[in-house]
Amino acid sequence: MNLKEELVEACHKVYERGFVSAYDGNLSARIDENKILITPSGVCKGDIKYEDILEIDNYGNRISGFGKVSTENKIHLVIYNNRPEINSVIHCHPVYCTAFAALGEGFTTPVFPEVVLSLGKVPLCKYATPSTEELPNSMLPYVEFSWAFLLESHGVVTIGKNIQGAFYRMEKLEHSAKTLSIARSMGREKTIPLVKLKELYSIAESTYGIKIDKRNRLDY
Ligand SMILES: [Zn+2]
Q1: 162-208 pLDDT tens trace
Q2: Which positions are catalytic?
Q3: Which residues surround the ion ligand 1 when the cut-off is CB under 5 Å?
């Protein structure tokens, strides 16, 4: 499967999972240091076809393809221009995560150990008007170390070294937001005690091969 086929498959998956509705969201993958594949605006991710995918440069100019470049391409460029190791960005509006974003609540307390390890701190990026520079600017304080970003009153951005990595982070975050929401309907969630959290971090690299940036840890 080539990169464009992989991107089309991820588009169909985010739509089937209900992470987007109608024309919501956009997905991208980096081809090389100068070229990015990205979904066009105004096409439902569930219906997207191979020939719909656009190629843009690092400034958001279309290099090939026929559709319109989404105004939300800035969300993608802010990541690619600041994180050389990242090759895929996914932006969606999944229901449970976006409900937390509507409450103005990021995921910054340790509840589920595997989420602590795979996603780290998920910051709430201050509300910004879509399509303006305000939106990528709201992500800037976290761009160097976060793997997922909650956009206040809007949605989510996840990133990965490849498309699969970005997709699984979106799926994992939405799954944990749903679980947390159900837990809160039954009571109040418990957080992992600090001593156990430190223990988890101490085995992260040796057991799971995960290196965690200090700025992304929940015990600071
Ligand atoms: Zn959006």
Answers
A1: 999 999 999 999 999 999 999 999 999 999 999 999 999 999 988 88
A2: 72
A3: 155
